[in-house]
Write a structure and sequence with these properties.
By secondary structure, this protein is mostly beta strands. The chain has one helix spanning about 1-15, and strands at about 50-60, 70-75, 80-95, 95-110, 115-130, 150-165, 170-175, 180-185, 190-195, 195-200, 205, 210-215, 220, 225-235, 240-250, 255-260, 265-275, 280-290, 300-310. The model is unreliable at about 1-25 and about 185-205 (pLDDT under 50).
């Protein structure tokens, strides 16, 4: 039974797409509207300042082996139309650790008096580390070497592309962060024979291509309050469509308060503080709406954004996204 339990967990956390099992493959964020660079290289440089963001997420707190994500990104315009960015993501779940390192390039054109369209490409690497010895600790102690699965920082290239349209109030982005599929076991997959976990050759363990759509708008409620709805959609072949809808009130351009709903998954609360013209702090909390909420204390997320302005130390135009 312990072997069966390990096999199921490994399949889930790796997000392997066998005939009828799918799971989370890429890191997800409650504050996706402040972190577009993680999914769309065309966002690089569009804030027209040098922007640095750090984000930490602990998902399903209290559940052993639950996902933990750390993100660091920075991007800046390097000319009138060119933007460059760097994005690093470290994701841990159960016995698996993944690190993504990407360089982003964007080129922006004017499509109207107020609207701009940016095209972006990204290239980088994924480092995958799987150590089944981590399962031999705590609640996962199975003491069975036949269940060992070990991958030591396997390198895989990544190539992605995207487009991002934005004006003073509206934005819309389409992207594919990685157009390369990744085969982890090269025709090998986990199976269970006579209550023993072994390797068979019946299917391929792979990460599939993800397609993202991100959009939002800024409404003026009055002179002091703005409403910022946003939408993130992720589509993956063989997996259910993921939909995140959020709405945030921006008060005096200093305090952000809002909530979000991840379709058939979670409800979220968010609060943000513009501590200074250059520094913003945000905190979020997710509560599962599925049966999984019985086994964890929710998910927590915090981010810090710091920006260096232009020569006059002010942004040319206020940016709310």
């Amino acid at each position: 039974m312990k072997n069966n339990y390990l096999a199921i967990l490994v399949l889930m956390v790796l997000g392997f797409c066998s005939t009828d099992i799918t799971a989370q493959q890429e890191a997800q964020y409650t504050h996706y509207m402040y972190n577009p660079l993680s999914i769309n290289p065309a966002y690089a440089g569009t804030r027209e300042v040098f922007s640095i963001l750090g984000l930490a997420r602990s998902q399903w707190v209290g559940l052993d082996g639950a996902p933990k994500t750390g993100t660091f990104s920075m991007h800046s315009p390097v000319g009138k139309r060119v933007g460059l960015g760097l994005n690093i993501v470290h994701d841990e779940i159960f016995i698996q650790k993944e690190t993504y390192i990407d360089i982003d390039f964007s080129y922006t054109i004017d499509v109207s008096e107020r609207g701009k369209l940016s095209f972006g490409v990204k290239g980088g690497a994924q480092l995958l580390d799987i150590n089944s010895n981590r399962a031999n600790k705590g609640p996962y102690d199975i003491g069975d070497s036949s269940a060992d699965i070990n991958i030591d920082n396997r390198f895989k290239p990544q190539i992605g592309a995207g487009a991002f349209y934005y004006g003073e109030r509206f934005y819309l982005g389409l992207s594919v962060p990685n157009i390369l599929t990744t085969n982890h076991f090269d025709r090998s997959a986990l199976s269970d024979t006579n209550n023993t976990v072994t390797l068979s050759r019946s299917s391929i363990a792979e990460e599939r291509i993800h397609y993202y759509l991100l959009t939002g708008y800024v409404f003026d409620i009055n002179e002091d309050i703005k409403l910022k709805p946003a939408l993130l959609t992720k589509a993956t072949v063989g997996a259910p469509l993921q939909l995140d809808v959020s709405a945030t009130f921006l008060i005096y351009d200093k305090l952000s308060i809002g909530g979000a709903y991840r379709w058939s998954a979670a409800l979220s609360a968010m609060v943000g503080f513009q501590l200074s013209d250059q520094l913003m702090l945000g905190v979020g909390y997710d509560q599962e709406t599925t049966a999984l909420h019985r086994y964890n204390d929710g998910s927590y997320e915090v981010f810090l954004r710091y920006e260096l302005f232009k020569r006059n130390d002010k942004m040319k135009n206020p940016r709310f996204f």
